[in-house]
Design brief:
Rossmann fold, 2 domains, seven-stranded mixed β-sheet, six-stranded mixed β-sheet, 13 helices, 19 strands, globular
């Protein structure tokens, strides 16, 4: 583990620590047995007074975080549906690319869910991902995928083997990168001179407004506003010309950029203006965010303690973000008996730090929980539909976020 001294983007040493979430385990380090020893690391945020980037103070070795991974994109119905929308939006912004010519490159491609629509429509693709177990899944699915941590070194290999890509996209990966500047330099290297770059990030304005403090964990090193992301890209002569919203992570943005300036869509300036008017990049706003998180913790614990008197509480969704919520709030198996997750890689394991058993939705629902805490709250609609339609569940649900926790006696 390394504690940063300069800012990850602008290298300024004028950074202020402002939110300490305590020592926490790595969010995806699920236990196979309660006898396993766990490592706990400091988890805290800082703010750069020069470029306004909100970032983690600590960096864990990427190999420890990503060489084996348990999140599989294709297990999420929301992600699968958005992959079709994403394909249409991206190809509509680069009409020069004809099927069978050139190729599309995805960085952090996971199981290849977001490349599948391109393959189906006859485009050549290449994925890059550091997790060998996930790369193996992608290859079984017929998706050409290279295993490795992307940066300028791998960019050179890609250029030598495949040449520049007409479309390069990186979804929910830039905030995970330890060497941020080398990563962006690699993106520019791989992009064709007339090509389009798309980057998706969990939008820090949304995190701030809706109190997504559970998105803070060791994998997420940077929390980008439009201002801080534009600053980073401009440093490498990449220019944003359009933006779209994404439902992923409870509220993300996709920016489109090129190697040269083109006419911006009106939405680009509206993002700049709105962030300035609403003080999204002000330190005082983020100080308030930290204070609200501590108040939220008390609210959620009060609800859980009260409803636990009525019967068993189960969780749903052993997501990485749930690890931060559980550990920050001090929730363990005394309050949440078991957690349902449809990802087979997570079943029969225990949550990191909080030691709650994880099993399939079928096993958990057979235990007839009185209440369900929807830990993967960003998929709450999808989860509640599944509970009602597949399991005929009519009990109560607790949705911890966004903003204040809420609960219903019946679903």
């Amino acid at each position: 583990m390394e504690t940063i001294i300069p800012c990850r983007i602008c290298k300024s040493k004028e950074i202020i620590s402002f939110f300490n979430l305590g020592k926490q385990p790595l969010a995806n380090s699920l236990l196979r047995s309660l006898d396993e020893k766990e490592k706990f690391y400091p988890l805290s945020l800082s703010y750069c007074q020069d470029c306004n980037l909100v970032q983690l103070n600590q960096t864990i070795e990427p190999e420890e975080l990503f060489s084996e991974y348990v999140w599989v994109t294709g297990t999420s119905k929301t992600a699968r549906e958005f992959s079709e929308i994403f394909y249409k939006e991206l190809t509509s912004r680069y009409r020069k690319l004809k099927k069978g010519e050139g190729y599309i490159l995805e960085i952090g491609s996971n199981d290849g869910t977001f490349l599948l629509p391109f393959i189906r429509e006859g485009y050549k693709v290449l994925g890059i991902d550091p997790a060998k177990n996930i790369v193996d899944i992608a290859k079984v699915n017929g998706i050409a995928t290279k295993c490795g941590f992307f940066g300028t070194k791998i960019a050179k290999e890609i250029l030598k083997e495949h040449g520049p890509a007409q479309i390069v996209f990186a979804r929910n990966v830039l905030p995970h990168v330890a060497n941020t500047r080398d990563f962006v330099k690699g993106l520019r290297m791989c992009l064709h001179e007339s090509g389009t770059l798309a980057i998706e990030v969990h939008y820090a304005k949304k995190i701030l407004e809706e109190l997504h403090y559970d998105s803070i964990y060791h994998e997420h090193l940077c929390y980008f506003t439009f201002k801080t992301l534009e600053r980073l890209l401009n440093d490498f002569q990449l220019f944003i010309y359009d933006i779209m919203e994404s439902p992923i992570s409870g509220g993300s943005v996709v920016i489109y950029a090129k190697k040269y300036k083109v006419k911006e869509t009106p939405i680009v300036q509206s993002y700049r203006d709105r962030e300035r008017e609403e003080k999204v990049n002000d330190f005082s706003s983020w100080e308030d965010f930290a204070n609200r998180a501590f108040l939220h913790r008390k609210e959620l614990l009060d609800i859980l303690h009260n409803v636990s008197k009525e019967g068993m509480i189960a969780g749903y969704g052993a997501s990485a973000r749930s690890s931060t919520l559980l550990n920050f709030c001090g929730i363990n198996s005394n309050l949440i008996s078991i957690i349902a997750d449809q990802n087979p890689l997570k079943q029969k394991r225990f949550t990191a730090g909080s030691h709650i058993p994880i099993d399939s939705p079928e096993v958990v629902m057979n235990k007839n929980p009185k209440y369900i805490l929807i830990l993967a709250w960003n998929f709450a609609k999808e989860i509640m539909e599944n509970l009602k339609n597949k399991f005929n569940y009519r009990g109560g649900v607790i949705i911890p976020l966004p903003n204040s926790p809420s609960f219903k006696k019946t679903i």
